[in-house]
Design goal:
The protein contains 16 helices and 26 strands. With about 475 residues, the protein is α/β, with parallel strands linked by helices. Helix 2 (about 55-60) links the parallel strand 5 (about 40) and strand 6. The termini are far apart.
């Protein structure tokens, strides 16, 4: 695969070019270890590494072109140097051009927000398939190119991987693509150069402050996605969220809202909630769905609205809403032989725990017993740890604090930070068991028939990361094993 350098450069705005542009480029990389002869290297400044320091090494390897924000002090003969204002943004546009602008050949819809991104994007992918179309999905759980699964490593891949996957979707005949757009990806310009047909905002609560620093920075990283939408795209936002309308302030896209509480273009209403489903209305049309809780009612309302805005037949959409099934690890229920229910959910923020636990309380009533097993990830926002424990404790009858993905931190230190959020009464109902497997088994042993055990934080994940090493661990498997041991 080759491309003319002059053609690639037409997609960016170079500040300075030193060297020949009438040459063929044979590869495009931002990883200096993968650069090939006659390829292009884009030097990106990352959090822990700066690609600019590898420019001399890359230049001596007979690379064809180097894109950078700062030119080196000396120039290698035969290498074209392109100076740009933002290398990360340039990489997004170059990656799109390199793969033939695949996003412009698909109806690409992005979903951003703190909670609900995976569910919304996945259900839109399933809706497209139910409508008879080939579609692609880019999500936290798994990527799909048509029916073919491609393991996911990030919520939003790097620009080269992202455009490669979109190009594969085009090659396999997909008409639609749905993707999660993380706050990291907008801040790091990973989605630069993509053309979206629509964008959806779910909600915003505290998360990723270890990266963004403040809630305002986090919020503006989400808003940046809507700011980049073109005029012929749609922007669908949650009118019930305090940040919902803020997302639309500067967008050029057509503006729409959805709501469970007030007037909106797409109005949902919950009529009845059970452990195995919900009866609700969507714009006045009654539908039985296989999802539980108000948080899922929001997800389904935005899926309903986005499906119609994407161009699917409204009557078929209503019928297919009842055929959609929950995403793995998102409020996924299990039932023991003697009547103990367990819910495995990805909830890993204070607000997500509130949503899930309030839903369970609504179902079991004030007399029902709720036992929660939860931890917090290492190397992430420390401030949310006591908040998560406090929200879990005040909504549960019994709380088990345990390890999540400790990464490079000591699990007991994380648990101690969570304990700091609890008062003496809450501590009296709390046990700390560092081993997550033992915590799940202890919670299931403690549960009486009719009780609900919530295992929160990891959801679909099939690993536990300790000291940088991923060991197999699946909450769903552990729940079933715990049931067998009752």
């Amino acid at each position: 695969m080759t491309s003319k350098l002059s053609s690639l450069l037409s997609d960016i705005k170079p500040l300075q070019i030193i060297g020949e542009t009438d040459k063929n480029i044979r590869s495009l990389e931002s990883d200096s270890r993968k650069v090939e002869k006659d390829g292009m290297f884009v030097a990106v400044k990352g959090l822990s590494n700066d690609g600019h320091k590898y420019i001399p090494m890359v230049a001596s390897a007979h690379v064809g072109a180097i894109v950078c924000e700062e030119l080196p002090s000396t120039f290698e003969k035969g290498v074209t140097y392109i100076r740009v204002a933002d290398s990360a943004e340039a990489l997004g546009h170059l990656a799109s051009a390199w793969y033939g602008h695949p996003s412009s050949r698909l109806k690409l819809v992005g979903v951003t927000g703190t909670n609900g991104k995976t569910t919304t994007a996945t259900l839109l992918y399933e809706m497209a398939r139910l409508e008879g179309f080939k579609a692609g999905l880019l999500s936290t759980v798994c990527n799909y190119v048509g029916d073919r699964a491609v393991p996911a490593t990030h919520t939003t891949p790097d620009p080269l991987t992202l455009n490669s996957l979109l190009a594969q979707m085009v090659a396999e005949g997909c008409e639609y693509a749905f993707m999660e757009v993380s706050s990291h990806s907008t801040a790091q310009k990973r989605v630069a150069g993509l053309r979206f047909a629509g964008g959806i905002f779910t909600n915003l609560t505290r998360d990723h402050l270890d990266y963004h620093g403040t809630v305002e920075n986090y919020m503006n990283a989400k808003k940046a996605f809507f700011d980049m939408l073109p005029a012929d795209a749609f922007a669908l936002t949650n009118a019930d969220d305090r940040c919902g309308l803020y997302m639309l302030q500067n967008t050029k896209a057509r503006k729409y809202t959805y709501s469970l509480r007030g007037e909106a273009d797409f109005k949902g209403r919950v009529l009845e909630t059970r452990l195995d489903g919900t009866l609700m209305t969507l714009n006045g049309r009654e539908v039985e769905v296989q999802f539980t809780g108000r948080f899922n009612a929001y997800n389904l309302t935005d899926v309903y609205g986005a499906s119609i805005l994407t161009g699917f037949d409204p009557e078929e959409v209503i019928v297919n809403m009842s055929r959609l099934v929950p995403v793995a690890g998102r409020f996924q229920p299990f039932l023991s032989k003697d009547g103990v229910a367990a819910i495995v959910d990805y909830a890993h923020t204070p607000d997500a725990l509130v949503n899930v636990l309030d839903t369970i309380r609504e179902i079991v009533g004030p007399e029902g017993e709720i036992i929660t097993v939860v931890g917090a990830g290492g190397n992430r926002d420390h401030g949310k740890r006591p908040m998560m424990a406090q929200e879990a404790a005040c909504r549960s009858d019994i709380l088990f604090l345990t390890s999540d993905n400790p990464r490079d931190e000591e699990p007991d230190s994380i648990i101690a930070m969570m304990r700091d959020g609890l008062n003496s009464e809450e501590l009296s109902r709390t046990e700390c068991i560092t081993d997550r497997r033992e915590a799940i088994r202890a919670a299931v042993r403690r549960a009486k028939p009719g009780a609900v055990v919530l295992v929160a934080g990891k959801g679909h994940e099939t690993y536990q990361e300790v000291c940088g090493v991923r060991h197999h661990f699946d909450d769903r498997e552990e729940v079933l094993k715990a049931f067998e041991l009752r």
